[in-house]
Structure formats: structure tokens, C-alpha cells
Amino acid sequence: MIKDREFLKNIAQQIDLLNTLGGGVSETYVDVKKYKKGAVINVWAASVDPAAFKVVLNNNQLSVFSVLQSKENPAMAAPLFNTTFMLPPQVDLGRVEAIYKEGQLMVKLPYYESTGQPREIEIKQL
């Protein structure tokens, strides 16, 4: 029927990738918990390879996503999930960290540490 081998090879890779998406990947679950000293974003995706996760912080916007790459053709990829969070001003962006353990990605969002002591601000006269 179809004699173009390159076309058949490419379409077979795409079908394999879609088949994996349709039947081999579990649904991702995202949960955010707030604590006194910070917040934690938990992402569960048991069948997702840890290397497929990406966490990107741009100003106060945090994006968490994963991409399924084709082993045969690295240029071919399909997004598994993508979610973006607008972080509140009390999050210390310099201390945000991500940890993957046993099928769960945890993104820790520590708040700025408060000194707890009131501080009088000097008023400058011009």
C-alpha cells in the first residue's frame, strides 16, 4: 500500500508514542499544602520517569511539567502534563527546591524567615 519507508517509520513512531500516552501513563495528581514556614507542591505520577519532570522558576511564576520523549526519535515529544503557579510575595525564591522520591515530585516553597521583632524605620529628612 504505502511504499515510502521513511513515512512508515515516522508514523509508526508517532503511533507508538500515542499508544504509550493512551495506555501506559497514569494520570498526574497535584496537591498544594500550606504550612507556617512555607508551602509544598506534591506531584504524583508513578509511571513518569524522574528525568521527564521539569521545574522552571521565572520571577514569581513556577511551572511544573513533564515531557515524554520518543527513544527512537529524540525530536519527537509529547507533553504529559503542565501546570503553572503564581507564587505569593512571601515565598523566598532563592530557597525553592525540588525533590523526587518514590514516584512523587515535591517542590518546597519556603517563606522568608521573619525576625519576629518589630523594627523601627528611620525617617530621613531631605
Question: What is the fold's blueprint, element by element?
Answer:
Blueprint lengths: L4 H19 L5 E6 L3 E7 L8 E6 L2 E9 L7 E10 L10 E5 L2 E7 L16
Antiparallel strand pairs: 1-2, 2-7, 3-4, 4-5, 6-7
Question: What would you say this structure looks like, in words?
Answer:
The structure is a single chain. The protein is built from one helix and seven strands. With 126 residues, the protein is an alpha+beta fold. It has one domain: Immunoglobulin-like. The longest helix has 19 residues. This is SHSP domain-containing protein. InterPro entries: A-crystallin/Hsp20_dom, HSP20-like_chaperone. It comes from Pontibacter saemangeumensis.
What features would you highlight for this structure?
3-stranded antiparallel sheet; Immunoglobulin-like; 126 residues; 7 strands; alpha+beta
Output mean pLDDT.
80
Q: What is the β-strand count?
A: 7
CATH topology description: Immunoglobulin-like
Our measurement of the CA-to-CA distance between the termini, rounded to an integer number of angstroms, reads 86 Å
In short:
With 126 residues, this protein is of the alpha+beta class.
